[in-house]
Amino acid sequence: MSNSENIHVPSMLEILIKKYPDYDWDWSNLSSHQDISWNFIENNPEFEWDYGAISENPNLIWKNVLDNIEKDWDLCSLSRHPNITWDVIVSNPDYDWDFFNGVPYNPNLRWENIQEKIDEIWDWNALSWHRNITAEIIRDNPNHGWNKDYMLR
């Protein structure tokens, strides 16, 4: 890895936060903001970061969570986070993944994944609208609580 790959170029928002640290920032909104990098969060622990909101930050990766396991992560948000893959979920069964309010909204979810964990409590209405669930899947698996309005779209 070259040295240039290790250099963090701060966003304008990060620059403003550093320039005006005493401003009455909304730390929850900042924590989940796409222009706030993990590097910035990690290197500025003096700020009032909201780890529940960081759980929604698009720059978050699973390694960040594992390296900071003591933080107050929001597992519902992590369950739906696009950087949290199915492999992460099934490889970490000790976590209380939210199969009702979280995982059905994870864009990485596939029908095969649902079948693998069919005994979980799923939000079948949410799954009915998931981009990876087709009308054919709903038709071929009528024994679940699908939202049949999906078929009309």
Mean pLDDT across every amino acid position: 93
Helix/strand class: mainly alpha
Number of DSSP strands? 0
Give the overall form. Answer: elongated
Write the H/E string, N to C.
HHHHHHHHHH
Helix content: 25-40%
Taken as a percent bin, the fraction of beta residues is under 5%
Distance between the termini: 48 Å
Give the low-confidence spans.
none
> What's the number of helices?
10
For the sheet with most strands, the description reads: none
Radius of gyration: 19 Å
How would you characterize the overall build of this protein?
- This protein is 37% helix and 0% strand.
- It is mainly α and 153 residues long.
- The longest helix is centred in the first third of the chain and has 8 residues.
- The radius of gyration is 19 Å and the shape is elongated.
Give the tags.
single chain, 10 helices, 153 residues, elongated, mainly alpha, 37% helix
Topology:
Elements: H1 12-19, H2 27-32, H3 38-42, H4 51-54, H5 62-66, H6 75-80, H7 86-91, H8 111-116, H9 124-128, H10 135-140
Summarize this entry quickly.
With 153 residues, this protein is mainly alpha-helical. It contains ten helices and no strands.
